[in-house]
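Annual report, structural modelling task.

Input specification for the pantoate complex:
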Amino acid sequence: MRDNARMQETPTSATRTAWHVLGAGAMGCLWACSLASAGNAVRLLLREPPACGSDASITLIPHPADGLREETLLVPVWLEAARDNAPIARLLACTKAPDLLPALEHIAPRIADGAAVVLLQNGMGFHAAVASLLPRARIFCALSTEGAYREGSLHVRHAGSGETLLGAFPGSAEIGATELVGELGRGFLPVRAVEDIIPALWAKLAVNCAINPLTALHGCSNGELLDRPTLRGEFDALCAEIAAVLAGLGHPGLAATVAADATRVARATAANRSSMRQDLEAGRRSEIGFITGFLCQQAQAAGLPCPLNEALLTAVRQREQAKQA
Ligand code: PAF
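The model returned the following structure:
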């Protein structure tokens, strides 16, 4: 067996801004590799001081679309304890939505004035809380269709090639996302700036509301929602309720396409285990509160009924509690 190839650090790394990455799961590791591949100094933030010294490497199994040629690469990164005190000027937060605020509270004193903080989570309802926690930072929202699996600690497989959209959280970052795309998108993962990220966040939320809780509760693949008649019935009814809520909330375009969008995504990811199913099966807290929970909150505030979504929210929460008990 041949040795894993080591990614070379480029001579420009000293002149580029250091990127801190929060969350050492599949997405955090994948992004750390992409940023490092462009010569950025990458610091992976860990809750506890690293046991193995600070100089480490992530094992990356790239996707053919990454253009990296090697089958497996060792990508050098620096491990840094969250309670270190070096200032943070660029932060990419890749934690799960429920872990985001507690993790940011921990490092808030380190975030420099004017720092760019990019939030890459499923769901909605946490961006404004981050903006008030970090009033002097510029907050950006990112949405990604990249697929990645963690194969072990600091070991990631880039399984599906996608794209990442980046936009400024309204009112938080006046300069927009274009300048930051130049930095974030220099690696092997493509990034595109969007003028208004909010419609894209709603579109992703609506698809996640349709697919994630049903697949998590039934323990089925995304494609089974379309192919098993009883599940298909539940899926169609849920899409209709999500569409009615979106229309009532003033998103008529999204309301008209949500069923087709969710069907297309479920078909394109037919063999996948949704992230919420993976969370429930692993006994982890899921993102239900920031997906279905957010939709239900918005519906309730507007006086719109959403009994199917409320029932799914309760059922997923009960399943989480049963696993933790
Ligand atoms: O959360 C997920 O799993 C994904 O966003 C999606 C699109 C539902 C595919 O599995």
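DSSP finds eleven helices and twelve strands in the chain.
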